[in-house]
Amino acid sequence: MVTIDPAAVIWSAPERERAGRPLLVLLHGFGSHEGDLFGLSPQLPLTPVIASVRAPLSLDQGGYAWAPITGQADAAAIAEAANETAVALLEWLDTTESTSVGLLGFSQGGALSLQLLRHAPERFAFAVALSGFAILEDNVGDERLASVRPPVFWGRGTVDQVIAPDKIEYTEGWLPDHSTLTARIYEGLPHSISRPELDDANAFMREVWSAS
């Protein structure tokens, strides 16, 4: 059974200071850990409480993952694992308090942010997927998601050699039909996060939260 370890979540505020504030959930990339994206906290909007979550799958080579990757499993097994992890994240969210919830994920964490929208599109104010992608060959919740069309920011670089072209192609076709999309492409950016991309993502998050 897939579960999220609450002891491994890094918070930007103690529990007594979280009530009545929005929550921004950070989802790290494959092979990373909860401390990675949390390092961006000083550069993210100040209004929300930030919670950086550790993925549930421990890797032999170190770090953690939200689901297997191609080469470890086929598309159906990857989608099944992503769905199990999305359910576990929703169960963890049930233990938190906030006025609204936003998602920010990098790489595979970005994929999980979109998978969470598939499972509970009304629950999230937005998703920010940086160097992320939509999981292939999976249509769980897509019809409902297409009717809700939550705000999504999708940023990626022109020289990202980590995310396979078929994933990018699928995401380019899928996102406009299932979200209110803000897409940005950054010239010369590899599989990483740049200052201009983070500025654009911050502007997007502030705009969505100010309108809610």
Describe the structure.
- This protein has 212 residues and is of the alpha/beta class.
- It has a single domain (6-211), classed as 3-Layer(aba) Sandwich (Rossmann fold).
- The protein has helices at 34-38, 75-93, 108-119, 142-148, 165-178, 195-211, and strands at residues 10-11, 23-27, 49-53, 57-58, 64-65, 101-106, 124-130, 151-157, 180-186.
- The strands form two sheets. It has a seven-stranded mixed beta sheet, with helices on both faces. A two-stranded antiparallel sheet has the order 4-5.
- Strand 2 (23-27), helix 1 and strand 3 (49-53) form a beta-alpha-beta unit.
- Helix 2 crosses helix 3.
- The longest helix has 19 residues, at 75-93.
- The radius of gyration is 16 Å and the shape is globular.
Instruction: List low-confidence stretches.
Output: none
Total number of beta strands: 9
* CATH fold annotation: Rossmann fold
How many angstroms does the end-to-end distance come to? 35 Å
The assigned structural class equals alpha/beta
Mean pLDDT: 95
Put simply, the count of helices is 6
3D shape: globular
CATH superfamily: Alpha/Beta hydrolase fold, catalytic domain
Please write the string of helix (H) and strand (E) elements. Answer: EEHEEEHEHEHEHEH
What's the Cα radius of gyration? 16 Å
The CATH first-level class comes to Alpha Beta
- Share of β-strand residues: 15-25%
Which architecture name does CATH use?
Answer: 3-Layer(aba) Sandwich
The total tally of domains equals: 1
How are strands sequenced across the largest beta sheet?
Answer: 1-3-2-6-7-8-9
Helix percent reads 25-40%
Largest sheet: 7 strands, mixed
